[in-house]
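Lab manual, section 2.4: Encoding a predicted structure.

Procedure: take the sequence of the chain (181 residues), apply the prediction step described in section 2.3, and record the output as structure tokens. A sample record is shown.
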Amino acid sequence: MAGRFQSLAGRLLVSHPAQRDEHFHESVVLIHSHDRTDGALGVILNRPYGRTLGQAQPKLLGTPLDRLPLHFGGPVAADRLAFGGWRFASRGPAAIRYGISRAEAEAVASDEAYRLFAFVGYAGWEAGQLEDELRRNAWITCPFDRVTARLEGEAFWKALLLKHRPDLRLVADEPADPGLN
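Recorded output:
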């Protein structure tokens, strides 16, 4: 791969409105690791299942994890549950962790400074694959900061997209089925 490599770990990927892949359409992905050799790994932040971990796995009812929001993290290992989250220090970027053990997750579950999630699956790219998608404008990159860390729900994708690419408003507002326009 020619050129200088710049890791996107700790940044967000916002899918371009033209992205029609069923897994990534209107998605926001938090990249937790990215290097030239192994590629990139992240989780989709705006695909909640609308239930908690305790509702999905009743054996966890009564544990510190039972009220944890359950999210679709991506199409890779879609049968695997993993814990991840972040905490912001008083200054600087977020400390992002993914793949933490159940014991670690239980330990930070009651820490109000830590945002913890349960993810089913993750998003992954082979070495060079994400860079190719970026060259094809499939993604808009943006910082992951305290403001964006508080966004959630269906409006998350559009709010980030229009903040960083207001020129895409018409495409973002286009209905999925133009016949409904």
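Check your result against the sample. The radius of gyration is 17 Å.
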